[in-house]
Every structure is written in structure tokens, then in C-alpha cells.
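Figure 6 in text form: structure in, sequence out.
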């Protein structure tokens, strides 16, 4: 655990970074074209991880289409955006989080109102349009967060957007490890933990690393959403719990549209490459 002074320094850097993000979103983001906006989002997310002392390890390349990942923390959004900027589907309450909600609402986030079928249908229609246009959209199909040492059942509703759009579904396994290589629960935004308590745990953690493993894309053709969700769940659960490349070890219940992307080597502040895979909330 870091000293109080170093943790306070991280919080100070984060506060300044959030302020710069607000200025960028308010002034530069609206006038920027799509490529520039994606670049700004990715760079800002990488810098945020660096501000709070989280190292990023990436395996695989993020393709277009529907990205589905297990959900542990609000950090998941920034870890994924640091790899490849995406439009997120998030629960509506995130919209009301201080600063983060304001930023999310102005950076292509799709908010989903719980318990409303009409809202879910509107969100799904919007996702279909984005996917058909070749966009990259990310969802957390657990619908809530876990501690990171396993994953909860997936809800299949939003998988229908990929089926309707004919888009591939790419499973992504997220893990947060401490310096000892074991699963860290510091970022876990679960139970009665508040956003502030979660953030304090993160900035006090020493040697925290976010591992993002991009797994082989799944075809969404000739399959229903329940089977697609179940297969994605099985693949991510294997990667999260075993911590190895699942590759051909997964049961071939669904076709793959192509070979698994090669591991991507990243460099830069707050980010490194994982030569071998080593596991609020939206």
C-alpha cells in the first residue's frame, strides 16, 4: 500500500486531469471530426490510468463490432478506451456521477434505463445503427460489477443488436492484478462500496495493473442471442479464471469469422505489453 502522500499526489493529478478533460470535451471535442475525437478519447484514457498509477497490459487487437467484457470497476471503461476507443452502453445512473457522468454523456455513451423495455429497444436500435456503420460498441452484459475473480451470468438482450446488424462479437477479459500477480480487489466497485471509497483503494494500491485480453471474435450469424451470450460468457470466464489464451480450447459452439488477432505490443505511459496473458460500473 502506498503512503498517504503518494496517494494524495495521485488524487491531485487525477483532479487536474479531469479538469483538463472537461475543458477538452467542452471546447475541442464538439468541433473535432470522428478520427480526432477517438484519438482524444484514447489518449485521455491512457493518461488517466497513468495519473492513478495503473499499468496497462494488452493482449490482442480490438476489432470493430460489438465488444463484450466482464465488469469489475468504473476503471473498465478507461482501460478499454485506452486500448481502442469505443461507444459504451452504460446504466443510466452513471449519467449522474460527479464529473465522470458529465464526461460520459458527451463522449458517445449510450445510457440504458433499467426496467424500461421501451428504453432498451431505443438503445438497441441505436446500437444496431452504429454497428451497421462499422462502429465499435462495448457493453458489460453482466449488468453489474463483480470482484474480478469470476464472472456473473450474462444478459443476452444487447447481443441482439449484433445479430440484427450482422456484426461480430468480440469477448474481452478484464483482470486487475497486484504486484504479486494475484487478483486485486482494490478496483472492485461492489456491494456497499462508494465511488469515493473505490477510488481511494485504487490510488493507495501499489503496482496495480489492468490486464485487457482481447479474445477471438464470434460470428453473430445463424445463432440466437442466448447462445451467443452463453458462448461469450464461457470464453471470458475461462480467460478470467484460468488466465490463459483460450484459443482452440473453447467448445466450437459458434463459428469464428476469422483468426484471433495477434497480441498487440503497446508502449507509452501507463501502458505495457503482456507477452503472455496473466482479471460506476456501466
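Output sequence:
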Amino acid at each position: 500500500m502506498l503512503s498517504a502522500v503518494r496517494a494524495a499526489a495521485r488524487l491531485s493529478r487525477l483532479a487536474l486531469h479531469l479538469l483538463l478533460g472537461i475543458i477538452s470535451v467542452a471546447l475541442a471535442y464538439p468541433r473535432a471530426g470522428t478520427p480526432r475525437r477517438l484519438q482524444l478519447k484514447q489518449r485521455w484514457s491512457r493518461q488517466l490510468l497513468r495519473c492513478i498509477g495503473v499499468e496497462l497490459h494488452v493482449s490482442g487487437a480490438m476489432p470493430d463490432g460489438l465488444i463484450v467484457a466482464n465488469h469489475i470497476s468504473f476503471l473498465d471503461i478507461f482501460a478499454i478506451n485506452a486500448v481502442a476507443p469505443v461507444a459504451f452502453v452504460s446504466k443510466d445512473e452513471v449519467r449522474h456521477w460527479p464529473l465522470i457522468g458529465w464526461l460520459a454523456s458527451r463522449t458517445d455513451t449510450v445510457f440504458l434505463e433499467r426496467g424500461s423495455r421501451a428504453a432498451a429497444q431505443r438503445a438497441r436500435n441505436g446500437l444496431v445503427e452504429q454497428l451497421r456503420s462499422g462502429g465499435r460498441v462495448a457493453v458489460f452484459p453482466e449488468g453489474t460489477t463483480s470482484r474480478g475473480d469470476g464472472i456473473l451470468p450474462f444478459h443476452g438482450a444487447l447481443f441482439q443488436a449484433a445479430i440484427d446488424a450482422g456484426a461480430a462479437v468480440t469477448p474481452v477479459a478484464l483482470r486487475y492484478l497486484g504486484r504479486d500477480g494475484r487478483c486485486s480487489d482494490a478496483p472492485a466497485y461492489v456491494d456497499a462500496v462508494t465511488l469515493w471509497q473505490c477510488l481511494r483503494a485504487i490510488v493507495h494500491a501499489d503496482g496495480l495493473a489492468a490486464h485487457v485480453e482481447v479474445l477471438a471474435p464470434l460470428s453473430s450469424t445463424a445463432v440466437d442471442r442466448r447462445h451467443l451470450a452463453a458462448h461469450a460468457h464461457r470464453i471470458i470466464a475461462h480467460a478470467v479464471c484460468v488466465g490463459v489464451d483460450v484459443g482452440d480450447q473453447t467448445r466450437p459452439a459458434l463459428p469464428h469469422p476469422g483468426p484471433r488477432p495477434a497480441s498487440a505490443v503497446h508502449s507509452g505511459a501507463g501502458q505495457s505489453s503482456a507477452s503472455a496473458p496473466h482479471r460506476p460500473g456501466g
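Caption detail: The chain is about 40% helix and 15% strand.
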